[in-house]
Amino acid sequence: MLGIVRTDEGSGPEKRAPLLEPDLAARVQRIRVRTHRLVTTALSGGYRSTFRGQGLEFSEVRAYQPGDDVRRIDWNVTARMGEPFIKSYAEERELSIELVVDTSRAMDFGTRLRTKREAAAQFSALISFVALRNQDRVGLLLFGDQPGLHLRARKGSSHVLRIVREVLAARPSAGGGGLGVALEHTERTLRRRSVVFVVGDFIGANTWVDPMRRLSIRHDVIAVRITDPLERELPRAGLVEFQEVGTGRRLEIDTDSKRVRDHWRACAEDRRRRTNEDLARARADVIDLDAGGELGEPVATFFRRRVARKGVSR
């Protein structure tokens, strides 16, 4: 993975300095403000329509009314009361959401509005605040080259703010190859069926495919792929020096060359195609987010697509 070298950062691999607490708190608050409007409008309704409860739970026994399903008659109560009574059920609405978020060094790359890590934090805030509004629980697992911090699913605004804070503040690892291990950890620790959002750029070895496919057997797995515009399209900017994130190796690229730009674009399209095939094999849905663009609309579009697909399947 390459990143643009900034001339004021010195030589060697870039190291991300720990965020100071006031700066971190300010960034968390900005994300909270940005997500508030989206959470209270289209996303909330789309979320509730997309993710149903885990089944039905017993609610009460009541007198039979014309049109009720006779298969729900409670024969014991009916015999005691001398008239028909039925069992009534209600949807068990509470869901469990699990966020599995890449915090490797590659996620600190960004050339436009925000870095990929900041986009991951804002997406985590969107989903978490919508879940909070619907009385659902949210958990978090961070990973880089290995699984990192794990917060068990809970409710509450302070818990949601901590999730956002941890995504932003986690110290990055050099590599992001720990997704497969993180998914195996998720499979072992999730006790009930959950909606699992796997958030990252999915660049690198695809050792995560089999663990994700196993996870999707029991859980609803959704890959949230975050890309930066520069990863897809190389602008004309003359000679630009790039630095490999993992090794610190530097490479000078002539971005004025059409052949170089075409090759860059072709590599990006091939990488995207191969990742799409891997995600299809893993039986995961996909949300594509542009770190340099609007994040709410792609999520809302995903909700609408899911609802429409359910309607067709019925």
Descriptive labels:
elongated; alpha/beta; 2 domains; Rossmann fold; about 40% helix; six-stranded mixed sheet
CATH architecture of the largest domain: 3-Layer(aba) Sandwich
- Pick out the low-confidence regions: 4-18
Structural class, judged by helices and strands? alpha/beta
Number of helices: 10
| Shape descriptor | elongated
Number of domains: 2
Per the CATH scheme, the topology name of the largest domain is Rossmann fold
SSE pattern, N- to C-terminal: EHHEHEEHEEHHEHEHEEHEH
What value does the average pLDDT take?
84
What topology, given as strand order, has the largest sheet? 6-5-4-7-8-11
For the biggest sheet, the summary is: 6 strands, mixed
Q: What is the tally of beta strands?
A: 11
Report how far apart the termini are: 43 Å
The proportion of strand residues reads 15-25%
How much helicity do the residues have? 40-55%
Rg: 23 Å
Please write the CATH class name of the largest domain: Alpha Beta
- Supply the CATH superfamily name of the largest domain: von Willebrand factor, type A domain
